[in-house]
Specification:
This protein has 123 residues and is mostly beta strands. It has no helices and eleven strands.
Length: 123
């Protein structure tokens, strides 16, 4: 049974940083991509970043490039999202998701989801 468990969310002042973790278990993820989506108050869920498990290739949403970094620890089957210079508009529920392959890493293609972790940025 596949399980994705997020952690690391919290309350942070604008300009601060947080590092989210997604613990993946229940299958061989070597041919999968694991990534993050977020959903802010009154907004639709949006793609943030993804990483291909086997070769570490990454994709980050344009608005977050330079601030957010996605990485993985293969030995521990953990995926991290390091977020720097956080702003109030980054306030959202952050979800970990997984799908086979990196291509078309969009919400309705991801078959596995975590429960999410809340990130709140105050000014």
């Amino acid at each position: 049974q596949v399980e994705l468990v997020e952690s690391g969310g919290g309350l942070v002042q604008a300009g601060g940083s947080l590092k989210l973790s997604c613990a993946a278990s229940g299958r061989d993820f070597s041919n999968y991509a694991v990534g993050w989506f977020r959903q802010g108050p009154g907004k639709e869920r949006e793609f943030v970043a993804a990483i291909k498990w086997d070769n570490g290739a990454t994709a980050v949403a344009d608005p977050e490039k330079g601030r957010f970094t996605i990485s993985r620890d293969g030995a521990k089957t953990l995926v991290y999202l390091e977020m720097n210079n956080l702003q109030p508009e980054d306030t959202a529920f952050y979800f970990c998701a997984a799908k086979p392959g990196m291509f078309n890493f969009v919400e309705d293609r991801c078959g596995f989801w975590g429960q999410g972790t809340q990130v709140t940025v105050y000014s």
